[in-house]
Amino acid sequence: MNAEIVSIGTELLLGEINDTNATWIAQQLKDIGVNLFYRSTVGDNEARITAVLKLAMSRADIVITTGGLGPTVDDMTRQGVASAVGQPLEFHEDLMREIEAKFARFNAKMTPNNRLQAMLPQGATVIDNPVGTAPSFRCDMPDGAIISLPGVPREMKFLMENSVLPWLRERAGTSIIKLRVLRTAAAGESWVGSSLPI
Amino acid sequence: MNAEIVSIGTELLLGEINDTNATWIAQQLKDIGVNLFYRSTVGDNEARITAVLKLAMSRADIVITTGGLGPTVDDMTRQGVASAVGQPLEFHEDLMREIEAKFARFNAKMTPNNRLQAMLPQGATVIDNPVGTAPSFRCDMPDGAIISLPGVPREMKFLMENSVLPWLRERAGTSIIKLRVLRTAAAGESWVGSSLPI
CA-CA distance, B12 to B41, in Å (whole number)? Predict the structure, then answer.
């Protein structure tokens, strides 16, 4: 099983933050034997998100996106995924009620744009997010799936550990990658490289 | 002027290190007004490096790669760039002598595989690297260039600051992106988003 990570957010392209999400997800995928051949980063632009997702789907079975699920106009992941899988966005009344309940519980002010967060690509499966307000979702495709997670590291990790990794583990093969770091006292990597029997 | 960063190294796909190189380069590009619409990460695999570079060249004027310039068998950037620009690799006698002199100066052991580092795509311009042994280079294309830098952050930053950024500054436009972080005491981004006049 091959995966690709697509990190979404203009802040990553402006160098405002390090993409520690992608590093962490890569570690988790390695540990369960899912191959990762590519990572991509794209800004908050619907057309470019769609293009990157289509390419990722052509290269990998599982595409994991992070970021762009918030309520503001620059949060384009829902629209990008919908275009990439060729489905319209659909309003989920039940999801809306959950979001409203969370806002009430967190004592936070709700605005009309939060309605956007209850829109998901038609046919998507909701990934319940008890640790934040951004709904996450999975779009199953004939040859794999796109899984969209929030960019907030705490929420992303919770959803990975509690929903995505168990789901992937059931479907991944049994071969995993074991890493061993060998520290050498040799004079540089060229000498080590030329001494290995490969 | 649009750029794309291509980070090369299987260690990035295994989550062994954070890609702080790409973050730093993104900051520098922003400061001189070069747009960055995509970042890509690929492992030490010649065919996949070539494919990612071809795609990057189709999307951007300037492609900046980091990593994969060492002397060991997993250092595939030279071959990948050569394939992407459609040029054979060529041995540079003068570069070889420089590498030998550096090894002598650093008192390091040289092996036959260091000869690989004196191979560059035909027509490439050498970017002098006084702070390390990995030769860097630029391949000029009709519509832009591929610039290949080492993955060692200290070397990469030195070459960016002393060679690549001055070269880019001469060619980039004059519009730059200014960021201002506004801290708010409001109840969440959805409220701030809906209050902005856009």
Answer: 7
CA distances from B11 to B67, B69, B157 (A): 10, 14, 20
Are A40 and B39 within 8 A, CB to CB? yes
- Dihedral pair phi/psi, residue A11, rounded to 5°: -60, -30
8 Å CB contact of B23 and A13: no
Could you tell me which chain B residue has the CA closest to the CA of A191?
B111
Contacts of A198 in chain B (CB under 8 A): 73
Share of chain B above pLDDT 70, in %: 92
Determine the Cα–Cα distance for residues A17 and A82; give it in Å rounded to an integer. 27
Give me the residue label for tokens 């992303």: A156
Please give the span between the terminal C-alpha atoms of chain A, in angstroms, as a whole number: 27
A109 with B186: Cβ contact below 8 A: yes
Under an 8 A CB cutoff, do A109 and B71 touch? no
**Chain B nearest C-alpha distance from A152 (Å):** 13
Predicted complex ipTM: 0.88
Determine contact, residues A19/B13, Cβ cutoff 8 Å. no
Percent of residues, chain A, with pLDDT higher than 70:
92
Just give the CATH number of A2-195: 3.40.980.10
Report the predicted TM-score, pTM, of the whole model to 2 decimal places: 0.90
Contact A40 B36 (CB under 8 A): no
Question: Would you call A40 helix, strand, or coil by DSSP?
Answer: strand
Per-residue three-class SS string for chain B: CEEEEEEECHHHHCCCCCCHHHHHHHHHHHHCCCEEEEEEEECCCHHHHHHHHHHHHHHCCEEEEECCCCCCCCCCHHHHHHHHHCCCEEECHHHHHHHHHHHHHCCCCCCHHHHHHHEEECCCEEECCCCCCCCEEEEEECCEEEEEECCCHHHHHHHHHHHHHHHHHHHCCCCCCCCCCCCCCCCCHHHHHHHCCC
Which residues of chain A are modeled with pLDDT < 50?
none
Judged by CB atoms within 8 Å, which residues 102-141 of B form the interface with A? 108-114
Pick from A196, A190, A186: nearest CA to B71: A190
